[in-house]
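Table S2 (continued). Query chain:
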Amino acid sequence: METRGTELERLQEKIKNLEFLLAQNEVKSLEKQIKPHFLFNTLNLVARLIYLGKSEEALEVVYALSKLLRYAMEKKELVRLRDEVQYVKDYLFIQQSRYGETLKYQLDISQNILSCLIPTLALQPLVDNAVKHGLEPKGGGSILIFGRLEGNKVVLKVIDDGIGFGEGKVSSMGTGLVNIRKRLHFYYGDEFSLDIKSQPQKGTEVTMVLPFVPDADDEYVPVFWFGK
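Corresponding output:
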């Protein structure tokens, strides 16, 4: 009986491992669903800058794009919030090069949460949605990226003053939010929340709340942190 019990435990453990691997594969497949429109638009931007004789600006855009691609291709399930924020800044640099002064953004993130571990590409798609679905149809606008530690939770907000939308139109923001929600549930179970508030012609606010899990190996201590 003891042998059977031990074998049953082993089988149950194998099943758990298999379920975990299947879930990981689903997460990776969701991450690969990032649409290529941003890449194509960026390459067109580089070509236009070169045509206009702005070679230095074109080089800066290429450098920022290379950092984005390198980050997205790294085989990391979790990253420091600091790294994700830098990814967002590189993304917004490219978008500002494309839209000019019509696109503005501000970072207001407390330095005491920058070591927090979060799933790779959890924040940037929210910013991409704000640009694509909020500001582009309006012809420009501003984005605020906010982050604070509240108790043992990290609260992240992406707020835009774009066109907004009414109730029942969250699906118009594409599959990005659905995928993020699935990924967050995979990592945190019920210990997270992802909420959306929006008003037509006034803008949208997306709030993500995650457990505060600092990276124990993070030795970087910034003197200060400020946004653009």
